[in-house]
Amino acid sequence: MVNRRTVIAGNWKMFKTVSEAENYAVKFLAEVKGIQDLDIVLCAPFTALYPLKNKLEESNVHLGAQNMSWADQGAYTGEISAQMILDVACAYVILGHSERREMFGETDEGINKKVLKALAAGLTPILCVGENLNTREEGKAAEWVRSQVIHALTGILREDLSRIVIAYEPIWAIGTGRTASSQDAQEMCVSIRTTLNGLMGSEAEKVPILYGGSVKAENIAELLTEPDVDGALVGGASLDPLSFVKLVHNAASVFARVKGV
Predict the structure, then answer these.
(1) What whole-number percentage of the chain has pLDDT above 90?
(2) What are 11's strand-pairing partners?
(3) How does residue 183 score in pLDDT terms, banded at 50, 70 and 90?
(4) CB–CB of 96/127 below 8 Å?
(5) H or E stretch including 173?
(6) C-alpha span between 7 and 242 (Å, rounded)
(7) Which of 4, 67, 121, 233 could join 82 via S-S bond, C-beta 3.0 to 4.6 A?
(8) In the chain, what are the domains?
């Protein structure tokens, strides 16, 4: 079995003021400082990134942004560039989240431009793909997700593929309390890896594929025991530091037992 990075990323979405983010970091870091086998990421709102930079420096927790522009600079009111988030020590950036696609009209073409820009800047994109309930019930989920992956990775060099993280997030399971079964998650992650193999060959084996959609401390272990589920993109369960601590520790236990080195 290929040993891929196990990534546990918390996506705070539009929650937490600066002071709330700082208080969270103090509590969270104290409880996860001994964990080295996982890539732990906090993806915070733009306003909290600089304060978190100061808190997370020299820790085992990485900082991520929730979005970025495909442009370097210029007359793009309200946008944030790759260089801006690099300047506050971000290592990761979420791109193509379903909420960005559905609420703000982001397209496959625009997401592809952002992925290319992130890679060029030295950031690790967490590329989100996933289907809605109608698409799944019509039996077109795999085809839909395959198309998203292919469009988002157009123009990516083979040697850059291992720098990407993909997060499968079934839209029908985000914030609804519904969770895809571990078998559902495994089947889609295999489908995504098959797509990557078609694009890039053996480099696809190096790409971490995460599951996102009502992930909690209580179900992370079952998800991670699947061979092609390499971590999680966690929404609501990452908002409380102690809840997220429990989830991270449960994930670390699975890594040691199943994914282990």
Answers:
(1) 83
(2) 43
(3) very high
(4) yes
(5) none
(6) 18
(7) 121
(8) 6-259 (3.20.20.70)
Question: Cα–Cα–Cα angle for 204, 208, 211, nearest 5°?
Answer: 125
Mutual angle of helices 46-56 and 18-32, in 10-degree steps: 40
- Report how far Cα 229 is from the mean position of its chain's Cα atoms: 12
Sign of CA dihedral 25, 26, 28, 33: positive
In sequence order, which residues have a C-beta less than 8 Å from that of residue 70 and are 6 or more positions away?
110, 113, 114, 116, 117
Closest CA to 60 of 44, 38, 75: 38
Task: Decide if 65 contacts 95 (C-beta within 8 A).
Answer: no
Q: How confident is the model at residue 179 (pLDDT cuts 50, 70, 90)?
A: low
Give the per-residue pLDDT at 59: 96
CA-wise closest residue to 210 among 194, 191, 234: 234
Of the candidates 222, 190, 225, 195, the residue with the CA atom closest to the CA atom of residue 209 = 190
Residue 231 to residue 166: CA distance in whole angstroms? 10
- How many angstroms separate the CA atoms of 140 and 119, rounded? 30
Question: What backbone phi and psi angles, to 5 degrees, belong to 42?
Answer: -110, 115
Distance between CA atoms of 170 and 133, rounded to whole angstroms?
8
Whether the CB-CB separation of 212 and 174 falls below 8 Å is answered with: yes
248/260 Cα distance (integer angstroms): 15
pTM for the full predicted model: 0.95
Q: Name the one residue in this structure whose structure tokens are 């289907």.
A: 131
**CA distance linking residue 259 with residue 3, whole number of Å:** 7
Q: Which residues are catalytic?
A: 97, 169
Separation of alpha carbons 81 and 149, rounded Å: 23
Q: What are the phi and psi torsion angles at 14 (to 5°)?
A: -95, 65
